[in-house]
Amino acid sequence: MESSVVVPWLVLGVLMAISSTQVEAAARAFFVFGDSLVDNGNNNYLATTARADSPPYGIDTPSRHPTGRFSNGKNIPDFISDALGSEPTLPYLSPELKGDKLLVGANFASAGIGILDDTGIQFVCPQISFSLILSFSNPFTVNVYTTF
């Protein structure tokens, strides 16, 4: 009977020890693929009519200037970056995406993109397809490995 009382206390003690241990894990890089809901400025570097580089886009950002996001402030990847304690991912086409910023990740999203190659043909010239965006990620990976 005495051992049946000890076991729950032992389990409770182990659980408390595990829960009080703090594990510091660095935020890992993450990569964004999608359309205008998560595009953070790739279309600023494309010849397209699907652009978010003029007001009212960006009116709720600290600078009050358009950032290329199809929203008036932060978009979903920005909130995820905040939750991870990481800086926001840069657009894949941004010239600033080099060096240590490669380790944060990259945003490959583009407004007007779709799973089918002919999605968004009315917006983008030349046409950007999901398969093309996926092909962008391969040179990015090579660039990360050769830089570090």
UniProtKB/TrEMBL annotation:
Entry GO MF terms: hydrolase activity, acting on ester bonds
Q: Write out the entry's keywords from A to Z.
A: Hydrolase, Lipid degradation, Lipid metabolism, Signal
- Report which superkingdom the organism of origin falls in: Eukaryota
Signal peptide, first to last residue? 1-25
| Keyword Transmembrane on entry | no
One Gene Ontology term of the biological-process aspect is: lipid catabolic process
Instruction: Please give the family membership noted in the entry.
Output: Belongs to the 'GDSL' lipolytic enzyme family.
**Record's protein name:** GDSL esterase/lipase
